[in-house]
Design a protein that fits this description.
By secondary structure, the protein is of the alpha+beta class. Helices cover 16% and strands 38% of the residues. The N and C termini lie far apart (64 Å).
Length: 283
């Protein structure tokens, strides 16, 4: 009986050891599964593929085109009128202005917007823009990316990254992810899709996003603000990023999100000092 008891004890101890080992393996496996979606274990290297410093007196039309007016809150006042943008002293100024420049245009407000549509795109990489803002009640400057192809450029399957949006006279900016998953299925917290960042908008700040196969990394002035990871889910359109996207930089005016407007506070403007686009070295 004593021998049987000892043998049983030894078997029980071995069993406990194996259970502990298996449990540890499972925990490590789960950790790395999650970790792989939310962490960059090695620094990502980038190649600078394009830079714009606005040192010329004319826009580079091989890259930039004017954003077209459309029936949406963000685009109803776009214009290519030469009085609502300016190249001077090494920066680009985009205005939101009361319309006193285009008598044949019935819009009361004119806003400037530029885009790289079908001229310059980014898939996996990094975008940095150095900008400052003069606000107004109703002003809505933005720096953003959207998919180029038909699927990723139109609702509800679109892929959009808002690198920076500013409202009115706020001392903060918004950085946001838009997709079918966030805007149609309304998943705003799993994972978190937007953040507010305190800034002094009247000073030059560098707004940035890194687009990687497993996450987006947002930052302001080189400080990371938040990450939007690709997660395992059966729901549609959670991470459409990696498709070719084009850059848009614009002044917008009015709309539901902005709220009350006051044209007496115009003009508003955004100055762009430089833009840099990098390609991620993922091989």
């Amino acid at each position: 009986m004593i021998i049987f008891s000892l043998e049983s004890t030894l078997l029980l101890m071995k069993l406990k050891i194996w259970i502990t080992i298996l449990f540890a393996i499972v925990c490590i496996s789960v950790f790395y599964t999650i970790h792989a979606h939310t962490d960059v274990s090695q620094p990502i290297l980038y190649d600078l593929i394009w830079e714009e410093n606005f040192n010329s007196r004319t826009l580079n039309k091989d890259i930039w085109g004017f954003m077209q007016r459309r029936e949406s809150d963000c685009g109803r006042y776009f214009s290519s009128n030469s009085n609502i943008y300016r190249l001077r002293n090494g920066y680009l100024r985009l205005y939101a202005h009361y319309n006193k420049y285009a008598p044949n245009d019935t819009a009361k407000i004119l806003t400037a917007g530029l885009e790289t549509f079908r001229r310059l795109t980014i898939s996996y990489g990094k975008v940095e823009v150095r900008a400052r803002i003069k606000g107004a009640q109703g002003a809505w400057p933005a720096i953003w990316l959207r998919g180029v192809d038909e699927r990723h450029s139109t609702y509800p399957d679109y892929a959009e990254i808002d690198i920076m949006e500013h409202l009115n006279y706020d001392d903060k900016v918004y950085q946001t992810v838009h997709s079918n998953y966030t805007d149609v299925l309304l998943h705003h917290n799993h994972p978190k899709y937007s953040i507010e960042v305190d800034v002094n908008p009247s000073k030059f700040n560098v707004y940035s996003v890194e687009i990687l196969p497993n996450m987006l990394i947002f930052s302001v002035n080189g400080n990371e603000t938040f990450r939007y990871p690709k997660i395992k889910t059966e729901e549609y359109g959670q991470y459409p990023f990696g498709c070719p996207m084009h850059l848009m930089i614009d002044m917008q005016y009015g709309g539901k999100w902005v709220g009350h407007t006051d044209i007496s506070t115009l003009p508003a403007y955004m100055d762009i000092d430089w833009v840099k686009i990098y390609k991620a070295k993922l091989d």
